[in-house]
Known about the structure:
The protein is an alpha+beta fold. It has helices at 62-69, 79-88, 113-125, 131-148, 152-165, 177-181, 185-195, 211-220, 272-284, 289-297, 328-344, 349-366, 370-382, 390-399, 402-412; strands at residues 23-26, 32-37, 43-50, 92-94, 102-109, 201-207, 244-249, 256-264, 301-310, 315-323, 419-424. Helix 3 packs parallel to helix 8 (211-220) and helix 9 (272-284) packs across helix 15 (402-412). The longest helix is centred in the first third of the chain and has 18 residues, at 131-148. The mean pLDDT is 94.
Amino acid sequence: MSLNRRRSPRVSTISGVKLPDSEKIFLDNGLPVTILHGSETEALRLDICFNVGRQHEHKRMAARATASMLKEGSSQYSGKAFAEKMDTLGSSWESPVQLDYSHFSWLGLSRFGMEALPVIADILENPTFPTSEIHAFVQRNVARLKVELTKPDVVGYRTFTAILLGENHPFGWNSNQEIFEDLTKEDLQKHHSDWYSTETCQCFLSGNVPLPFLEMLNKTVGQLFLGKKSPPSPVIPKVNPTFGTTEIKLPGTLQSSLHIGYLTGVRQHDDYPTLLVLNTILGGFFGSRLMTNIREKLGYTYHIQSNLDTYPDMGSLWINAEFSPDYLNPTRKEIFKEINLLKNKPVSTSFLKMVKSYLIGSELNALDGTLQAMEVIRERAMEGLEKIDYATEIEKINSVSPFQIQEMANKYFSQDNFTEVRVTP
């Protein structure tokens, strides 16, 4: 049978999507461990997350620096010895940058996991934060920041978050050279001492998990921070947005950038599933309206998208694009044209069905394999979504109607309450 390439594949409704079954155990120190077994792989991954981020800092950048510097030395292992141990075991140790929590991830073969655990436990509880390594951390980040600040998109986004959230909000301020250079060993020690405890920690274990590994996990990680208490979590200050347009000159650049955004709700808000679909229609995938019109049809820009961000206390839906300076006003005009279309005219049923299938298909892809599925489970746990049924959220996405999309666009896309940042040469 020949394939007719002029006809697109049939779009089907996806239903019955659910998270794989996991189990939860508690170690001797009360630390919760979520386990997802997967016999299809020899790999084993241990994710250790502390619900500690910018909102807990006594000094700016303390959370990120503390997380980054743990591997640079402990009471029993130097940074070099730790790195060599990980290499010998054919494993990796990463500390991905997060704004609202600290995340550490060990990945290796299950047969080497028991040997890695004592080393991991020591750097978590007894980091030494060598002054020389702190200096190197500062120098690296200052050099990287100087390069980043020559890019219109980076400058635009930094300014946009500061204006939308407020510079005194923990997720609104931006790093600079002075903030990095002001960090001291005592700052990192205080942040670690105050906030790294079993009260703020969760573990996630996925892959081939042998019983001896669980026993060793309890003998090592299960003995950490015994009797230690963390202070009450600080109250996050209210968002203090500034609406309107801000223009920044960046001499020497060839490109211009544009950021336009609106405040939304937290990840747990009832509006979130509909907002997710709305964002995807507007600029959340390659077939979105912004991409189809402004890039594909008009050729104003190579890169344009919309994004839906959430924080512990609020969220935002924002659009960003880069283009030649000559296309700033035409691009801006077309962005608001697409926003107004969503406010004034319901999307077609066929297009909405395709977008929902794309979103749910992406979720299915994210659940393909034990290690990937655990990423979804971990992210939901750290976002406080454990009590919200995953299958119910998927069905809410499936049930979104054209009327709901139009209603949500009118609710959040206010003509008066938006923040815009332009960066031009």
